Amino acid sequence: MREIVTLQIGQCGNQIGNNFWSKICGEHNLDQCGYQISNNDLEDRKDVFFYQADDGKFIPRSILVDLEPRVINSLQKNFYNEENIFVSGEGCGAGNNWAYGYYSGKSLKDEVMDALQREVESCDLLESFFMTHSVAGGTGSGFGSLLLEEIKNTFPKKSLNSFSIFPNNDEISDVVVQPYNSVLSLQRLFLHCDSVVVMNNGSLSKIALDSLRIKTPNFDQINYLVSTVMSATTNTLRFPTYMFSDFNSILSAVIPYNTLKFLIPSYSPFVNKEVKIVRKLTVDEIIRRIYSEKTKMASFAQSKTHGHISVLNIFNNVEDVSEVEKGIL
Question: Could you tell me what percent of the chain has a pLDDT over 70?
Answer without folding.
Answer: 90
